[in-house]
Amino acid sequence: MNAIDDAVTACHAAGYQDDGETAITITRMVTATSYPLPGAEVRSGGRRRLALPGRVERVTIGKVTTNFYRSDNERAGFKQFRTKDTPGIAAEAANRARALQSDAAPAPRSPRGGPSP
Question: Which has more pLDDT, 97 or 114?
Answer without folding.
Answer: 97
